[in-house]
Amino acid sequence: MSGWRFIRGLGIVTVVAFLLVCFTPLPNLLNRWTGVSAQLQPAAAIVVLGGGTEGVGVLSTSSLRRTVHGITLFQRGFAPLLALSGPASQPPGRGEAEVRAELARLFGVSPAAIVTETTARTTRAEAACMAALLHPKGVSKILLVTGYAHMARARRLFEKVGFTVQPAPVDDLSEASKPEARWGLMRPLAQEFLARTYYRVAGYL
Q: What domains can you pick out in the chain, each with its CATH number?
């Protein structure tokens, strides 16, 4: 009998959670609460974190938005160096960082002002690899470009490896007004919550 009650209670909680996500402003409120606002100031480098690909040589929407935002900041004169992250592709081909660098060059960024990091596959690894790449160049203050909800975790990781971080987030999780859009917004927020929890338990934050 107790097991049946548990299953029934779990079902009720699931239904209530679904209704809250789809038919209330809860996802939008959580998005605003978890995000970090932009603090744009001149820096030594603009660091654009990876956002994924949708096949060899094809940037995901998130990656493309971050790349364009980083290029725009560079063209506005916020930093003399544009550092683009993104792992090499499997099978071998044009990986995310290489495609981003090509796009930056097409927008007029000098090849000499572009550096790429192609090995990191987690935010923690990106921070460590960018530190190894940029600290020898005398870079300590950076403008960090990543997703709005992802910024808090990324900023802390980059600060732990010795960077002074100015957030330059891309608001890639837009306000949702329809039930299916709210549900779609909640999924990446839940993933980020789980990632933050794991990083804290592991002692990375």
A: 2-34+174-201 (no CATH), 45-167 (3.40.50.620)
Residue type, 67: T
pLDDT at 90 over 80: no
Burial zone of 113 (CB within 10 Å; 0-12 exposed, 13-18 middle, 19+ buried)? middle
Cβ atoms of 130 and 117 within 8 Å: the answer is: yes
Q: What is the per-residue pLDDT across 114-165, written as a single tens digit (0 to 9) for each?
A: 999 999 999 999 999 999 999 999 999 999 999 888 898 999 999 999 999 9
Q: Are 86 and 104 in contact (CB under 8 A)?
A: no
Torsion of CA 41, 106, 110, 131, to 10 degrees: 60
Tell me how far CA of residue 116 lies from CA of 87, 109, 182, in angstroms: 10, 13, 35
Location of structure tokens 């992802």: 150
Question: Which segments of the chain are extended strands (E)?
Answer: 45-48, 82-85, 114-117, 141-145, 164-167
Residue 203 DSSP symbol: T
- Between 158 and 204, where is the model more confident? 158
Residue 132: predicted pLDDT: 97
